[in-house]
Amino acid sequence: xxxxxxxxxxxxxxxxxxxxxxxxxxxxxxxxxxxxxxxxxxxxxxxxxxxxxxxxxxxxxxxxxxxxxxxxxxxxxxxxxxxxxxxxxxxxxxxxxxxxxxxxxxxxxxxxxxxxxxxxxxxxxxxxxxxxxxxxxxxxxxxxxxxxxxxxxxxxxxxxxxxxxxxxxxxxxxxxxxxxxxxxxxxxxxxxxxxxxxxxxxxxxxxxxxxxxxxxxxxxxxxxxxxxxxxxxxxxxxxxxxxxxxxxxxxxxxxxxxxxxxxxxxxxxxxxxxxxxxxxxxxxxxxxxxxxxxxxxxxxxxxxxxxxxxxxxxxxxxxxxxxxxxxxxxxxxxxxxxxxxxxxxxxxxxxxxxxxxxxxxxxxxxxxxxxxxxxxxxxxxxxx
Length: 384
Ligand code: MG
Prior knowledge:
The chain is mainly α. It has helices at 38-47, 50-54, 73-90, 95-104, 113-123, 132-143, 157-163, 169-173, 180-184, 190-213, 219-222, 226-238, 244-274, 279-283, 294-312, 315-337, 351-363, 367-378. It is globular and about 65 Å long.
């Protein structure tokens, strides 16, 4: 639905960018902002919402209380936004839209990262499951409660489309226009494609940094990665006496730069080769236009594989994941058995409605709140 408000076109965007002229509207009509454009307004609404602030205390890989040095979902989201903006600017795309999607992409994440999400999904199996992308959409469409005239943040179609990175066919069918591309095989805007890839580039690199710093990731294993080895040789050739910390940062920064530069050059080449001249051209492609060259794509996948084997499946990370999953499962059981413990109280039309309310409540928790709640119900003290 388009709200019909006048809006300032976004300056100096390429013909295939999302601009004020071709963007989808808001679900609830509103007058346009005076000093900002509509995309800035979306970005600003996301920054001011409660779910965004709670990202500070949610796990990326390391549970929040494990150390102050590691990335959280908040710093991860900021890094995704930074990488996203750089790529968007180089490609002449809408930077504010890219940033809004990047900042919102993890709003629906549970406490305890992927471990928490898979535990909650298992608990929700008979009630429609739990998908964190869909939950991020639920946060911005429904769960945030701060405006008098509408639920959620009433974001633009383009922002919501970008937040919904993946989606099952069953869920896509009930999402209308937003779910269409998952059924018909089209692509989202380039801005949405950027936020998606910037997410992967960001976590590959910051997880390398955090994993090495935590002593869980073996530098020798990373040296098996051709690009890492090449980058390290190059840095040491230039600065032979560099200390280990600066060396780590310089190598990781060099790799990040390499991936970002490659995707910009390769995407510009694809745009040129395929004669992409409009947003419609972007949407009708069978595969994403935002792409690495084949060699760099292979290096990107190899880095993900090393991180999965060496870091995400490290016994210490798995041990914490198992404990986190037990907390999520226990909390789910507690709130299903006693709906009076939920903030809304015990009033539900059906077990499905109660399960969804429980899932929303648990998904919105920070790591430490979930641990404190669990400890309170189980009658022991929470870890510091
Ligand atoms: Mg992410």
